[in-house]
Amino acid sequence: MAEKQEQEALKNLDNESKPSFVEVVCKSSGKVRRFAAGTDAGFAVSLINKKLLLDNISAKSSRSSPQLASHIEAVKPGHDSEEPISFGPTASLVNYGSPWILQTVVTQPHKPKRTVECSKIFHIYMGSSGTEGSCSEKKESQPLGHLCIGKIALALPIVFVIWKIFLQFLQNLPLLLLYIHNGM
């Protein structure tokens, strides 16, 4: 009977001694952030990123932007063979015990997006000779400039002139057919 009471007391102590929060180590800043147990991982990541940006602004750092966290994972330090446990945006943060540490995973520095020309993709897909593997990349298009607006302004009158000539031809087509038919 006394042993059962001791075991129950130990369980109660364990439940009371466990903190009701979870600690997440931020890889970018090295700071430990605390969150309530059961907090969504997506909320924790967004809060950590906001604090990183605020710290960067308040420090007036020469760096353009800090490395932001993409997600949180639980890792065992020193166990490279152990697969980390990744938390999705809606997963609840859980402490897995003493060897496990929750930490952020930082994203790679932002590189400008690159797009591939559609015609090159079509040639590669269709297997055209000479273009395989030579798909050229180009940076995303710049905002409309004066040159582009000028080209559009020049193209519109040309289109209207061609349209007017075609319309005039269609209006005179019956007369042309009568002339050809009567002449022969």
UniProtKB/TrEMBL annotation:
Segments passing through the bilayer: 148-170
Taxonomic superkingdom: Eukaryota
Keywords for this protein: Membrane, Transmembrane, Transmembrane helix
Protein name stated in the entry: Uncharacterized protein
UniProt lineage: Eukaryota, Viridiplantae, Streptophyta, Embryophyta, Tracheophyta
